[in-house]
């Protein structure tokens, strides 16, 4: 998977826009960015414990670049928005919640593909699954 080249600050800003804490194009304050970094690291640590290890390395400052596949950004931004909303007395719209769920499904596919690649399984004859029987 291709890693993203987005700084944490962009992901945090996108999440804050989703819950209308800031407007599109507006730069979050230093305290908003610090809060976003903490929330991002907490959320990603929880995901790793939950089996969603996607290569995330905790960020120290908002200018750090994320170490995740590009396909994971949708899930990260929208779930971070939901995670941050209560701290800003904001709410996530049904659209943000739906995108967060879609993003998690994508992340689950990414982690499943990485596990399958490590197992070196042979595809079944119809190529619809994998043969997990040991010869």
Name the CATH superfamily assignment: P22 tail accessory factor (Gp4)
- Number of extended strands: 2
Can you list the strand order of the major beta sheet? 1-2
Query: Would you tell me the structural class of the helices and strands?
Result: mainly alpha
Q: The CATH topology is what?
A: Hypothetical protein yqbg
pLDDT average, as an integer? 89
**CATH architecture assignment name:** Orthogonal Bundle
Classify the beta-strand content into a percent band: under 5%
Task: Tell me the distance between the termini.
Answer: 31 Å
Dominant shape = elongated
CA gyration radius, whole angstroms: 17 Å
The level of helicity is 40-55%
> The biggest beta sheet, please?
2 strands, antiparallel
Order of helices and strands: HHHHEE
| The first-level CATH class name | Mainly Alpha
Number of continuous helical runs: 4
Low-confidence residue ranges: none
Number of spatially distinct domains: 1
What does this structure look like?
This protein has a single domain, classed as Hypothetical protein yqbg (Orthogonal Bundle). The chain has 135 residues and is mostly helical. It has a two-stranded antiparallel ribbon. 27% of the residues are buried. The protein is built from 4 helices and 2 strands, in the order ααααββ. A hairpin with a 6-residue loop joins strand 1 and strand 2. The two termini are 31 Å apart.
């Amino acid at each position: 998977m291709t890693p993203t080249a987005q700084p944490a600050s962009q992901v945090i800003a996108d999440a804050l826009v989703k819950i209308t804490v800031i407007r599109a194009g507006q730069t979050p304050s230093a305290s908003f960015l610090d809060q976003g970094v903490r929330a991002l690291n907490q959320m990603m640590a929880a995901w790793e414990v939950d089996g969603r290890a996607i290569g995330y390395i905790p960020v120290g400052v908002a200018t750090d670049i994320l170490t995740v596949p590009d396909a994971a950004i949708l899930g990260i931004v929208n779930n971070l928005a939901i995670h941050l909303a209560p701290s800003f007395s904001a709410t996530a719209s049904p659209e943000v919640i739906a995108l967060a769920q879609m993003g998690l499904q994508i992340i689950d596919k990414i982690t499943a593909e990485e596990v399958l690649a490590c197992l070196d399984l042979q595809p079944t004859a119809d190529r619809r699954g994998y043969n997990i029987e040991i010869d």
